[in-house]
Amino acid sequence: MIDLQNVTIRSRSVGSLDNNVYVITAKDSGTQVLIDAADDLPAIRELLAEAATDTAAPAHVELIVTTHSHWDHVRALAAAVQETGARTAAGAEDVPDILVPTDVPLGHGDIRRFDGFELEAIKLRGHTPGSVALLYRDPAGPAHLFTGDSLFPGGLGNTQKDPERFASLYADVVERVFDYLPDDTVVHPGHGAGTTLGAERPHLQEWKERGW
Question: How many CA atoms lie within 13 A of 15 on its CB side?
Fold first, then answer.
């Protein structure tokens, strides 16, 4: 658990591909955003129950955001929506590929305001056409960026060796992430351990040259 000034961030690795599920909880209001209901509803239920202890208010999931449309990131989405009654959001271009209806199609730069915090959508096109990262700016410390499968420690997300897709993702990651945010920004990826932009920045040219 990451305890910040106004919110907490909790995560759980689920499923055979070790997908990361994240929940952001506003301490004062109990409002929660769930990021990537990837798999294993019982584990997600446990995660939400743990996060409910981070607030004195009644905890409630207001929005479930899917970072991109790949099957391993949506396996528990329908069940999570049914259980929580939350609205859903995803990058607009990925909406047709997500079987669960999307209530909020996200565009680049969209700000979603909740009771106690805000999230900014950053489109990172290439892994999928509508892949979206979510930025939380902590007023008392580094920003936190939830990158789905677009940015990991050591490189970008898979673009199936397609030069155009890689070029698109690389350009977006450089311009919309590394040129936009400081080195202390914490990266929370869709699988595996996190990192910071400062740890990854020296390798950008290496990634460009190798093409993945």
Answer: 21
Q: Which residues contact 107 (CB under 8 A, 6 or more apart)?
A: 92, 121, 123
Span 36-50, pLDDT tens digits: 999 999 999 999 999
CA distances (Å), origin 7, targets 3, 21, 54, 82, 122: 7, 16, 8, 25, 20
As a whole number of angstroms, the distance between CA 90 and CA 96 comes to 10
- Cα-Cα-Cα-Cα dihedral of 145, 146, 151, 154, to 10°? 80
**Whole-number Cα distances in Å, 197 to 10, 93, 158, 180, 206:** 20, 26, 19, 11, 15
Residue 160 tokens read as 């199936």
d(CA 197, CA 172): 14
Closest listed residue to residue 197, CA positions, set 148, 134, 145, 162: 145
Task: Report which of 212, 190, 195, 194 is spatially closest to residue 17, judged by C-alpha positions.
Answer: 190
Count CB atoms within 10 A of the CB of residue 202: 8
Q: How far apart are CA 64 and CA 85, in angstroms?
A: 10
pTM score above 0.90: yes
